[in-house]
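Give me the fold.
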Amino acid sequence: MNIVDPILFQCRQQPPAAAICAPGAGISLISYRRLEYFIHNISRRLLSYGLAPGSIAAVSIDDVIFHAAMVLALTRLGIATISVRKNSIPPIKVDAFISDAPLGFRSGDRAIQSDMSWTEGSDEPIESHYLPEISPDSICRLIPTSGTTGTPKAVAISHRLLIDRMSRHGTVFGRRLANCARIYSDAPISTSLGFQFLIYTLWRGGTLFLPGDSFENTLQAFEQYKVQAMVAPPSGLEVLWRWYDRFPEYQSNMETIICGGDKLPPSLSERVRARICPHVIAAYGSTEASMSATATAHALNQSSDAVGFVAPGVTVQVVAEADTILPPNTEGQIRIRSEFSVAGYFNAPEETALSFRNGWFYPGDIGTLSSDQLLVITGREKTMLNLGGDKIAPETVERVLSTCEGVVESAVCSLPNQLGINEVYALVVGPAALDLAKIKAHCATQLLPQFIPTHFIAADHLPRNEMGKVDRHHLPEIAKQAVARHQ
């Protein structure tokens, strides 16, 4: 089955119902009837370019609803898609690059200029002989990721795998989600979780809400349409909490929140559950292996590093360097075997060999696993700080910072001093009047002297990638710029 077929079924079942809402400028709101017309008209235009089933198209369109409709039309024609930002180069070779803006291309790249006129036409379905027979194992979507190696690459998702991943939402995210038809996704549709919830919501005839052109408009849509559920990385939750905290007259109607992409800091978790929604699901997963562990946020209160209980259909082991399985609660390298995992990266055998071995996926995380299958992530292999021979995971320092009063979240990195010895720098997010001297004194009570941050930098937010993970590659440069401004 083509994953677009159930969406077109919903278009016929409830044409006036709202399908996608991105408040503000642009299309803003589209009904199921209009979404169906968009898919038909865009499909007809695509056919004129001769794109064959099985080919790959990169999509770079600013208007998120037009972008989604383009992706659905391509998918229905049997063309795999990958979404990229404007002026970004896909991590794989594509057969066409569809954009709403003029772009310069390397030799061999095929550029197709699109605009809103593509959504206009007869509104009639294309003839059935133009629709290829889709194998369940045909690729429908490619998700860009830096994965565990830091090298840009792509994960190929088949129709079958996407359906299997969505079918377990009720299990891994809890029964409350099944009762929510109006869902806000702060995860971009270019990401695995964002694309899943686009398809999942439309399959059920629900309304997917996406970030508008301003947060004021987005928040007004929450109130107007009584949005019931939210999917977001910690950075999205932080922005939402700040707005709700700023406007006490706004009352949240959220019934459940799913937080994925990175660990949910305990201090942020407490604030979100107190102000926005008491039922928060923390989710640990990856583009490669999908959701591997989840739990309610209040169930993880006892351990700031716990990310959830291992989900059904998933096996997690903690191993030593020689892949020797370690006893419960012993720190080591995490590896995952899942019914919902891919076997490797798309057309990238070298990167695949680094992260996939003997049926296991190695996400690059360090942690422990308890006897009752509670997974704890304590750090990552590639982010360990080396301070003149003394080594510590940045997450260890960040855990201490998170216990300091007023700190919402933090991120640390290292930079060399005048003698070439690395020192710890800490970016700290909190109130404007955050007392950095007090935070340093707090760290001194829990960390060895060599691990206490030398520089504390107050920040409005942390740099994050599309999935909401802290972008640790940019932390040193941010730290350098902050120190230079104060010199």
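The chain has two domains: 11-309, 384-485.
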